[in-house]
Structure formats: structure tokens, C-alpha cells
Amino acid sequence: MGQMTLTTILGAMSVVVALEAVWLQKKINSNKYFGWLAKEPATSILKGVYFAGFPAAALIGGLVPARFFGLKGAEAGSLFALSGSGAEIITGIIAQFGRTLRIWMPDFGPLVAAATLLGGLFFLYFGIYLAMLNSAGTGEKRILRIYSSPVDLLFDGLHWSFYRAAAWLVLGNLYLGVAGGLAIILVEYALVSRVGNFSVAWQQQYALRFMLGLVTSVAFFFAPNLWLSLGFLCVLVVFSLVPRQGAAAKLAA
Q: How many C-beta atoms lie closer than 10 Å to residue 229's C-beta?
């Protein structure tokens, strides 16, 4: 019970910190002493501490076991032996890679099946979004970019995995964990948007991110493997760049 309580508190703290960060950013932007916190590289460092810090604290602190995150292969032992000759190190890496693939193998089939349907669902939504964007005029071009960098993409994947793992642990069921994790993400995005007084453009961007979180979380239900889930997320974002370029060209014309 203590473990579940601490995990719940950690999850709540994550939401609260996100709200405080948005509120503080509005204050800091106009402050001559602390304005640097809202600029690079300070923002990247702070985002890294937030997005990676909570999952790391839960995992390293032993609050949430690795399997709830979907860290399959992490329990197979050390990643590889870093002692011995170069040939021995390479052999150890190859052997570990083979063991990891064998552990992942049962997840590939369900993931491919789920990803086909879920990927179609996401791009249907994305197509509707682009159609709305084309009729919005050039003033809304900036919302075409879902993520400003691959690092932000991975940060979101880790962030969602933390909420999903915490909900799975507390609720005791993978299905409820996925649903609970999505509910926390939705609540956080809604509150952050309200506190930050985001424009319609930013709200639409967060809607796209939530849609990504939705389809990757459902895929996680069928194949509870964080590595494959992150890979699916990357594939979706990469393929979303193709129609994005076409829409950008139309808006620039």
C-alpha cells in the first residue's frame, strides 16, 4: 500500500510541476533577471530533468518495477560485459542483442497488427487536421510542427510511459493502467492549456500529441514493450512529416 501511495503522490507531483512550469514561464519571460530560464539551453535542461526525472525516480527508487514501464530485456541481466578484449566485448553485445530480440519476439506480431489499425486511425485524424489547416491561412503555419526536435519526441514517450506505468501499478491491471495513463495525460494537457492560456494553434498541437499518446498507448496494451512503443511513436511522427511538407508548400504559395 505504501508503494502505491508513493507512486500516486509522484504522479500527482508530475502534473503539479507541469502546471507550475507553465505558470512560471509566463512570469519569467518578462523578468530581466530570470528570463534566461525561458531560453535555450536552459529550457532543454529543465525539460530533461522533468520528463526523464520522474520516470527515473520511480524506476531507480524501486517504486515502479521495470515491467510496468515495458522495459523488456532490462531484466535479462547486465546489458553486456564491458571487460575483456575488444572481441569479447563485441561478442557480449551480440549475445545480449540476440537474447533481447528473443524476449521481444512475441510482441512483434500483436504490435504490427495493432499498429496497422492505429496508424490508420492517427493519419485519418491527421488528414482532417491538415484539411482544417489549409483553410486557416498562413498565420497558422507553425502548428504544422508537432515536435521541435527528436529529443522532445522521446521526452513525451518517456513521460507517457511514467503515467501509464504508475496507473498500471496502482490499478493492478494493464487495461486500466493504459486507460488511467491516458486520463492523466488528458487532464494534464487540459490544465496546462488553461493555465498557460494557449492559443488555438497550441491547443491543436497538444491535441495531436494526445492522439499520438492514445494510439501508442493502445499499441502498448497489445504489446507491452516500451522500446517497440517508442519505435512506433517515431515512425508515426516521421511519416507525418511527408504530408506536412505538402501542406506547408500550399500555405506558403
A: 25
